[in-house]
Model the fold of this input.
Amino acid sequence: MFGIENLTKTFGSGAGRFTAIDGLNLDIQEGELVVLLGQSGCGKTTALRCVAGLESADEGVIRFGDTVVFDSGRGVDVAPEKRELGMVFQSYALWPHRTVRQNISYPLKVRKLTKALKEEKWVEQAADLVDCGPLLDRYPHQLSGGQQQRVALARGLVSRPRLVLMDEPLSNLDALLRVRVRNELHELHQRLGFAGLYVTHDQSEAMALGDRVAVMNKGRIEQIGTPQDVFERPETSYVANFVGITNVLDLVREDGRWRLKAAPDEPVEPASLPEELGAGCQVRFRQSDAVIVPAPTSRSCLRFQATVADSVYVGRSYDVSVSLGDVRLNARADAAVAAGLDRGKPVTVEVPWPACVWFGTDGLRVPVGDLVPS
Done:
């Protein structure tokens, strides 16, 4: 198991001092791929660099199994090349004047693994793992972006490291190639079972690759769990927003009934909600779950009236922007319903209960379960 304990890293001094990592704790099991997910500046890349030894943290401990590679209290800070790591960079970092074979073999030469290099054919094996065997005598400029990324991955794996670190390795690929290489990387991890720490700002990438996903904010992990847990049961309003639950309605309880804060005169159904929500709450839901219907249905759901602001055809359905007081929400409509939508027209929006995520005024999720009011 690989562990990070109470890791803290600051930059600058005086008024310009800021904390990039703030008491970070994280474990990675053998064979597990953990994804650090977050927006730019959240500390995910700094954390990766500290694990790699490219940055020295101010406080904390980093363990690789029983080996401590960093301990601020005891003055331990093992050099990067002695940490038995594999690194895959965002920019690939391939030497243009060296062949694919020479690029992949570099970690073996640095660690003086002569037998692995010459007799055991680790370079050829690593290249074959990522389908780059026929490319060993080519130079980087003779490769496509996807091929270069595979070479970078082979170099990260060739020394059979204890932990593979990947810093947004797919971000330089175009959209279609990114999906293909992402799927190949997932298959490779399933086949080899290496332990890895993967950094990205891309939600779909994190969900597709991670055994667990850790959402970072201001140097801390706000939530860590399986992709399904994080996607469907975000623990904080920040995590919900980051994983695409961007529609937000604030509700207040007045005289025993729930009303929309943005439009208190507009009806919202149901008027009665669980006591766990307190006197005020926030409900969040995805655009894909908010459906514009021609007339209220009989199903049990969150239902409210809104006004059409705009609609855009996205193939087989429409993305519809609606207004509710001064709040703008995003919903969807099928082609038949969208044909009758005009700007300024009142519409009914329905959201199924399981798709609603509820938060208290402190931004923490309220565990009301599968809310199905009577």
